[in-house]
């Protein structure tokens, strides 16, 4: 079965670090099993540089968001899915909690997904509950609502476009805290089931939140997730590829 490791740099890195990561990846990629799908999502500004180095490799390069207002137009500061596709990237992370908490609504997330799919990009849709929501017994209800309010009716028709869900409990992101093994498997199973009910297909469900080289093995065994979405530990090629080497 395919395993996924996708790195999300967030607002981190520099031109030099992006270059060094890509050069490092070129050296390490020949040693990675062909059953592992790898992706990295740097800030927009570093996409082209990384793609220049990684273009003919198995490493996918993607963006961390895209405009919800179509592909072109008078939208100062926006970057459209078509532009992301145009520079050669192939996926986009949508609905990360760090963007939801800065005002992204389910309507905007639904529009971003539509724009991304229209442009031919693959999508990693992030969902996850806050600590208060979990403590109130609302984790599943929150995730269900996030999925139902933003998903298109049908799965992407083009087989070269993947659609993955990343379950990222907000309280586990960047905190070093991990859900209990049974919470992990319950939530990834829940996401997988919702998607199966809706689209009648199995799609990759990733886990994200404080995944490191030291815990990725246990996290994947416990969660039965298809892979991981990694923040801090994706910033250096050493950490990233150590994490890949430690996959179960
Ligand atoms: P950390 O791995 O730094 O906790 O971040 C997870 C994340 O938000 C990935 O999208």
What descriptors fit this protein?
248 residues; eight-stranded parallel barrel; alpha/beta; binds 1,3-dihydroxyacetonephosphate
Commentary on this structure:
By secondary structure, this protein is α/β, with parallel strands linked by helices. The protein has a single domain, classed as Aldolase class I (TIM Barrel, Alpha-Beta Barrel). Helix content is 40%, strand content 16%. The chain has ten helices and eight strands. The chain has helices spanning 15-28, 47-54, 81-86, 97-100, 106-119, 131-135, 139-150, 181-199, 216-223, 237-245, and strands at 3-8, 36-41, 59-63, 91-94, 122-127, 163-167, 205-208, 227-230. The chain has an eight-stranded parallel β-barrel with strand order 1-2-3-4-5-6-7-8, surrounded by five helices. Helix 3 (81-86) links the parallel strand 3 and strand 4 (91-94). Helix 1 packs parallel to helix 2 (47-54). The longest helix has 19 residues, at 181-199. It is globular. Residues 8, 96, 168, 173-174, 208-211, 229-233 line the site of 1,3-dihydroxyacetonephosphate. 1,3-dihydroxyacetonephosphate (13P) binds at residues 8, 96, 168, 173-174, 208-211, 229-233.
């Amino acid at each position: 079965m395919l395993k996924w490791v996708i790195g999300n740099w967030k607002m981190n890195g520099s031109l030099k670090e992006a270059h060094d990561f890509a050069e490092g990846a070129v050296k390490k990629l020949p040693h990675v099993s062909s059953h592992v799908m790898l992706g990295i999502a740097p800030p927009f500004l570093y996409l082209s540089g990384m793609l220049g180095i990684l273009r003919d490799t198995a490493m996918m390069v993607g963006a961390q968001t895209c405009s919800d207002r179509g592909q072109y137009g008078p939208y100062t500061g926006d970057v459209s899915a078509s532009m992301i596709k145009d520079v050669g990237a192939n996926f986009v992370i949508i609905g990360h909690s760090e963007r939801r908490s800065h005002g992204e609504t389910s309507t905007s997330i639904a529009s971003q997904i539509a724009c991304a799919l229209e442009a031919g990009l693959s999508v990693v849709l992030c969902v996850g509950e806050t600590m208060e929501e979990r403590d109130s017994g609302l984790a599943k209800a929150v995730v269900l609502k996030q999925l139902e309010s933003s998903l298109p009716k049908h799965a992407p028709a083009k087989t070269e476009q993947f659609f993955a869900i990343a379950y990222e409990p907000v309280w586990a992101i960047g905190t070093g805290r991990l859900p209990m093994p049974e919470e992990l498997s319950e939530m990834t199973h829940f996401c997988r089931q919702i998607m199966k009910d809706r689209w009648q297909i199995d799609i990759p469900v990733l886990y994200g939140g404080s995944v490191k080289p030291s815990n990725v093995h246990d996290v994947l065994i416990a969660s039965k997730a298809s892979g991981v979405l990694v923040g801090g530990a994706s910033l250096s090629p050493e950490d990233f590829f150590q994490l890949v080497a430690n996959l179960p």
